[in-house]
Amino acid sequence: MNKIFKLLTLCSFAILIASCNSNGQTGKQQRPDNSVKLVAPKGKAIAAFAEGCFWCSEHIFESVAGVDSAVSGYAGGTVPNPTYELVNTETTGHAESVLVYYDPKVVSYQDLVNVFFASHDPTTLNRQGPDVGSSYRSILFYQTPAEKEIAMDTIKDLTKANRFEKPIVTELKHLDAFYRAEEYHQNYISDGKGRGNPYVTSVSIPRYEKFKRTYKGKLKPGA
Hints:
Elements: H1 3-12, H2 17-20, E1 45-51, H3 54-61, E2 67-75, H4 84-87, E3 95-102, H5 109-118, E4 127-128, E5 131-132, E6 138-142, H6 145-160, E7 171-174, E8 179-180, H7 198-214
Helix pairs in contact: 3-7, 5-6
């Protein structure tokens, strides 16, 4: 989220005060290990995506049939164990991301890639809506050569079909590491933590509703 907007929101609403006092530490001080093992439970699979605010992304992916859960976090950078505050400095290389746990018998990686492109604007460089900075850039992560090929082919197909008015600027990156975000970010919308937050009501929810109108795949009942 745009840093100035976030500061106003975080400091104006009590529900977000905790984020203004994050436990994250910078500099040479040691930070807790928040890395997530990139191993899926038996019979399941994982995939990661960066498409702007992870509050929105988590809510969207968890509405898709076959998705067990989505974890908000940070990926794509070089700094180990990043914190929310540190990522917001735009110096870590990380982007707000979601790690999706899913059942490949119900939903495929291709399906999730389709969700990715249906739920954000992949043509805006280092920006998603009001959120500006490299930590909000569009990244399509892959773990295998097959997933990379699916990602590349999808971008080619969307470009050929003129799906977007401007060129797609989504990065393709191998998923080397994923770091879990602070607990107050997890299930921020679905658990009601963001109730009353103007960012959620004016940005997150409209983006979610737009996704539901345009996505052609199967959603969970009641989504």
